[in-house]
Amino acid sequence: MLSTWTVMPTSPMVFTQSNDDADWGTVLWSTETTGGLTTQSGADATVRSQFVGFGVLTNTNDTNQPRAINNAFPVFGFA
Fold first, then answer.
1. Alpha-carbon separation of residue 1 from 41, 50, 63, 74 (angstroms)
2. What is the C-alpha separation between 13 and 7, in angstroms, rounded?
3. Sequence-ordered alpha helix ranges (H) in the chain
4. How do residues 28-57 score in pLDDT, each as one tens digit?
5. Cα dist from 15 to 25, 27, 28, 52, 79, whole Å
6. Staple 76 to which of 1, 3, 41, 42, CB 3.0 to 4.6 Å?
7. Cβ burial, residue 70 (10 Å; 0-12/13-18/19+)
8. Is the link from the previous residue into 66 a cis peptide, with omega within 30 of 0?
């Protein structure tokens, strides 16, 4: 079984781009679902400090979406 994280534009426009970034498509990151797998999305500092401090993630998803990449730098992780 796989655990998958999906990212896509809020309002996709097929085969168009803005600032050399695609305005369409879906990106998938997957990993094998194993015992002890944890996930988390959120601000980079929050997610990384959670893992560094505790060795696991909180299995929570960021509710502050969508937002610009430089607004609390959104990240996700599998651990």
1. 21, 26, 26, 26
2. 15
3. 44-54
4. 999 999 999 999 999 999 999 999 999 999
5. 9, 15, 18, 39, 34
6. 41
7. exposed
8. yes
What are the pLDDT digits (tens) for 5-22? 998 888 888 899 888 888
Which residues, in sequence order, are bridge partners of residue 29? 5
Distance CA 3, CA 7 (A): 14
Beta bridge partners of residue 7, listed in sequence order: 27
| Half-sphere CA count of 61, side-chain side, radius 13 A | 6
